[in-house]
Design brief:
Chain B: It comes from Cohnella lubricantis. Chain B: GO terms for molecular function: peptide transmembrane transporter activity. Chain B: It is found in: Cell membrane. Chain B: Belongs to the bacterial solute-binding protein 5 family. The complex is a heterotrimer of chains A (about 300), B (about 550) and C (about 300). Chain A contains 11 helices and no strands. Chain A is mainly alpha-helical and about 300 residues long. With about 550 residues, chain B is α+β, with helices and mostly antiparallel strands. Chain B folds into 3 domains: about 140 residues, 3-Layer(aba) Sandwich (D-Maltodextrin-Binding Protein, domain 2), CATH 3.40.190; about 150 residues, Dipeptide-binding Protein, Domain 1 (Dipeptide-binding Protein, domain 1), CATH 3.90.76.10; about 220 residues, Dipeptide-binding Protein, domain 3, CATH 3.10.105. Chain B is built from 16 helices and 21 strands. In chain B, strand 19 and strand 20 form a beta hairpin. Chain B is globular, with a radius of gyration of 26 Å. Chain B starts with a helix and ends with a strand. Chain C is mainly α. Chain C is globular. The chains are: A mainly alpha (about 300), B alpha+beta (about 550), C mainly alpha (about 300). Chains A and B meet through helix 5 of A and helix 7, helix 9, helix 12 and strand 15 of B.
Amino acid sequence: MKDSRTLTLTKEMFKRLSFRPPGETIAGDSVPMWRDVLRRLVTNKLAMSGVVFLVLLGVMAIIGPMISPHDYFTNNLDRTNEPPSADYWFGTDNLGRDLFSRLWMGARISLVVGLAAAAIDLIFGVIYGGIMGYAGGRTDEMMNKVSEILYSIPYLLVVILLLVVMEPSMWTIILALSVTGWINMSWIVRGQIKQLKNQEYVLAARSMGASGARMLFKHLIPNTLGPIIVTLTLTVPSAIFSEAFLSFLGLGVQSPAASWGTMINDSLAGWTLFPWQMMFPAALLCLTMLAFNVFGDGLRDAFDPKLKK
Amino acid sequence: MRKTWLSILALLLVTGVLLAGCGTKNASGPGIFNMNLSSDPPSLDPALAQDSVSFVVLTGLYEGLTRKDAEGNTIPGVAEKWDISGDKKTYTFHLRHDAKWSNGDPVTAHDFEYAWKRVLDPNLNPASPYAYQLYYIKNAQNYNMAADNPDHISDPNQVGVKALDDYTLQVELENPTPYFLSITSFWTLFPVHQSAKSNPAWASKAETMITNGAFKMASWKHGNAIDLVPNENYYAKGEVKLKKVHFYMVNNASTEMMMFHTGQLSFAGFPTGEIPAEQIGKLKEINKDELHIQPTAGTYYYAFNLTKQPFDNLNIRKALTMAIDRQLIVDKVTKGGQVPAYGFVPPSIQGDGQMFREQYPDTGLLSEDIAQAKQLLAQGLKEEGLASFPPVTLTINDGAGHKQVAEALADMWRKNLGIEVQIQTQEWKVFLQNRTSLNYDIARAGWSADYNDPMTFIDMYTSTSGNNDLGFKNPQYDALVKQAYASSDQQQRMQLMDQAEQILVKDNMAILPVYYYSGVYMVQQNVQGLEMDYQGQIDFTRASVQ
Amino acid sequence: MVRYWGGKLVSVIISLFVLATATFFLMKAIPGDPFTSEKAVPPEVKAKLMAFYGLDKPIWEQYLIYLKKLIHLDLGTSMKSQYQTVSSIITDSFGYSLRLGIFAIIVSVIVGVGLGVVAAMYHRKAIDGIAMVIAVLGVSIPNFVLASMTQYLFGYKLQWFQVAGLNGPFDYVLPVLALAALPIAYIARLTRSTMLEVLNAEYIKTAKAKGLKRSVTIVRHALRNGILPVVTYVGPMTANILTGSVVVERIFGIPGLGKYFVDSVSNRDYTLIMGITLFYAVILMLARLLTDLLYGLVDPRIGLRSRKGASS
């Protein structure tokens, strides 16, 4: 570096700064933050193993049914309820269908149902809950009442009606799961926001003139990410289970397609005799949940580095 | 703060423990017969009962004019003997003098007259859903009609049932009905104690139920359990060996199986429970002394919607009917000893002196032939002007293995005919509504006998029948049924009904028969004297448990 | 205070009214009626049955009649179970669900919070891992699978417990386990997650710096703040457990209200559907009220809200 004493000030050395409005924008740019989050996430081995598992699962859901020598729907009534073998890698079900192919076909449906329902819950729940918690007072009371009433409407009636009005399909089931699914999320978010609303940094931001929406989405919601992510990682399995419960009542995905939930459900009558029919989908379901959970934890830690000791 | 929390927790715990403390243990042991009903009987009023669960309990509580033995023969019950007139339209029942109600009152012919007219009473509320079981009686249907119907008869004395004295009951019929005697053991025709007049809710509580059967009700915890104990006023109480009958209401097949295996149940499975199809194979090996499989009078079939393309075409219907392997379905999918069905009337229905199916086998009605089925399909599609098989949906309801059968059938059609059939599961009442209003392509159906005569099957597909949800209208068929109604000659009746069945199945292929039902049940080895009739109705009144 | 509770009551009644209306028309929109059955009831008999239960009237008239009865707290009689009033069915069967539910709630809160706190205290240590594995298993196994498996293992194979029924205190173990597994996992994760945040907060560090004992810090400071989301969850959980035990009830043969609810929908037992729906809604609202009260108890800052409400 040059010696500063010899430095002469010239006009070229100065640059006119663009005008920055007072207040709030002092907060750092979001791009480096995301990069930061990503960096921290990548170094978290546990979280990354979850990600790797989920990616593998996604890949298997796509190619799994193709690599098996059997398709997922053809019956082989001479070879029903067979244990895993070289021919049928994961055994067969009560109609002699290949469980390996069915498992990956089931993965497609279960994952789409779980993720779609979780996404809808996330969007509706966070917005609705955020507004409830932030607005407070009358608005909160009213919105809370509406969600309470919606939550009390018998879910079964809604599902049956939806399936009568619309063609039964995976999307109808997702819709049915979402009708009331988001409410729980909204209550969690509301509780969190109420608690955070009066904290110093929020008051500070408000006194600096931040708008309501900005307050909500820039400050309050990011700080409730922990509980949101935890709730979310649990929404995926609960959506998958709800779908299985609908199958339990005969309202799930239509055969010959199957989800993990329907596969577990169908195997229940004979699982003591043919345990593999339940073990494979149940184990995969457990592992998927585990992966979502460690990934969720990692994500939360990455967002909130101070948790790392 | 910490104290508050602790005290709340302590309070909750104490409440919980206190609440949990109440309740009694139900023991199994000698003389106690434990059975699972799966659900609470909706009504134990013989006039209002309409399901097999209620019937099991009613069998213990009541006795009609006649009873059934294990072979399905009618044997004396409250009636000791009976005379039938030459034109077979008047029945005179002579009642035994020692039959008593559980409160000690004698059971008289007036009680039967009262009970039957009560079933038919147009002002009975709620109305009896099975009143039509009494329509064989003279003027019964017209009396039962709503008052604004021009054919309505308002005078109950014109109904053909009359107590000539305390122990003689005379019944006049509309038509000679050879199976009328077998109906007199049916629950709708059980006697009712006249205390029902003053208390319409009498049949919903153990305390107000006065019954005349081998047992009386000791307690009824709705949705939970029913206990029956022997009726000390029963005329044949010496034949009743059980000390107690306990009914559970557990609606889960695998739980029921475990309860049986751990000795909590003396009986499991059909008709009020279910043995999972998956377990039958194993049970045949390890529990062969407990496992029983018995044909029951019912047919499992698919209904074609005859009013809608493509199943308005006979050849397409024939192709689908012929292209499946029923034996394989019975052996590998349902596994419960069902019998492949090629007709509509099941083998356990009686005909003229022999079984109907023995005299008129179903083998001539349809045959399985894939090559011919392919041909017929091609021909049918051409007739309909279709280039390929249109998308059709096979509609089923949820529960009890319907999905497996449907999937197996769809797979056979895919392999044998190269056609795709979509399977759609619907909620039970939505399904029924759609089937009744002909809003389907192919739908699952099942029918079981109300009485031991082919007519219980044949007359459901007349053009005016409320159960005809095929859109099947055939004047020749209607005429045959009408002729059979009027005939008192059994041989002629059977012939007419055989012709009708040929029109329904062979000529029109309006239905796709799959199999004849069977009942799969398990009985502990210490239980003796349990009887099951042709319908699969269980009679435990003379059973004993060591 | 009176005005506060009066206002609450009015809003509860309005909610119930809206719910009753929505459910009524929803349920009437579904195909089928109480008398649809495999063996068709003759049309004249069906007409009489419909008339007896008032189902032949125009739908708005049926609705007004129902509301009128409801105002007099008359839930009517079941259309399926002859001569049984809806209120007697609810009181009889809810007893079982309530007993089961109370146990499940107690177990979930104690075990869930315990696991969560321990996991947070020993963050990234073996205990944390074990606690979270338990939590993950809890959410990963559908309750009907867990119920079937424990029933098979402990009821059938080992015969430690009865397979079905709810007669002695030991009969509660398996169903409670099946009901509590998911809430335990949920609460454990929620507690751990908020506890981790709280443990890093300034005031905890201050407390530590002041030389307070670790256990005292945890219980007196961290737990009180860390438990807030759990309190939010206790309301819905109570409602969920009390109203959502149908699968567990079915597997263990428990004659609870959940079983009746599913059956009432499939039977189109209109009066029973309405009765149970409204009953469930009341439970839900009570549970929400409980949440608010607990909230005030745990976090005095939020408690201000109700006091503010009282004075306004």
